[in-house]
């Protein structure tokens, strides 16, 4: 199972999180339009990544001959539901500059909580989940 596309999408998502962090550190109110635009762009990448995971990766693992890998895929898919829901609530709440400007500290707190959870999940996938997949199905 080739997971290079998933790894590349992780890099794009992590880059988007880093860009949001930079814009926030430069001043939330001053960069509200930039922050909202980054959220919209990041959301499209996250949405694509989740769609491909749900349509290709998780179904492939569910039917894998290795029961440990199938269970691991099921666990990761279940866990992602809550993280994805929280992310998309965050994105819908803060994808307009006027909302970010009106409540910069609310945005900061929400971003810290939601983006940290997303970041930590992707790091866990990179260090635990993807290596397990590649160990069971080495790239050609």
Structural commentary:
Residues 3-133 form the Hemerythrin-like domain. Pfam families: Hemerythrin. It comes from Massilia cellulosiltytica. This is Hemerythrin domain-containing protein. The chain is mostly helical. It has one domain (4-132). The chain is 86% helix and 0% strand. α1 (4-25) packs antiparallel against α2 and α1 (4-25) packs antiparallel against α5 (104-136).
Layout: helices, strands, pairs:
Layout: H1 4-25, H2 32-62, H3 67-94, H4 97-102, H5 104-136
Helix pairs in contact: 1-2, 1-5, 2-3, 3-5
Provide a quick synopsis of the model.
It contains five helices and no strands.
Taken as a percent bin, the fraction of beta residues is under 5%
Distance N terminus to C terminus?
9 Å
Estimate the global geometry from the Cα principal axes: elongated
Give the C-alpha Rg: 17 Å
Please count the beta strands (DSSP E, at least 2 residues each): 0
Main sheet summary: none
Helix content: over 70%
Task: Indicate how many domains the architecture comprises.
Answer: 1
- Which spans have pLDDT < 50 for at least 5 consecutive residues? none
Helix-strand topology string: HHHHH
Alpha plus pi helix count: 5
Structural class: mainly alpha
Mean pLDDT, as a whole number?
95
Domain Hemerythrin-like: 3-133
InterPro entries: Hemerythrin-like
Protein name: Hemerythrin domain-containing protein
């Amino acid at each position: 199972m080739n997971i290079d596309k998933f790894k590349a999408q992780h890099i794009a998502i992590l880059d988007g999180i880093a860009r949001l962090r930079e814009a926030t550190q430069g001043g939330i109110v001053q960069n509200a339009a930039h922050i909202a635009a980054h959220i919209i762009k990041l959301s499209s990448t996250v949405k694509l990544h989740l769609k491909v995971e749900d349509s290709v990766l998780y179904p492939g693992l569910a039917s894998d001959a290795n029961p440990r890998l199938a269970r691991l895929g099921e666990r990761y898919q279940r866990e992602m539901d809550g993280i994805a829901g929280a992310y998309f609530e965050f994105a819908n709440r803060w994808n307009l500059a006027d909302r970010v400007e009106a409540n910069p500290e609310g945005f900061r707190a929400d971003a810290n909580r939601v983006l940290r959870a997303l970041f930590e999940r992707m790091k866990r996938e990179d260090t635990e989940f993807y290596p397990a997949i590649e160990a069971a199905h080495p790239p050609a």
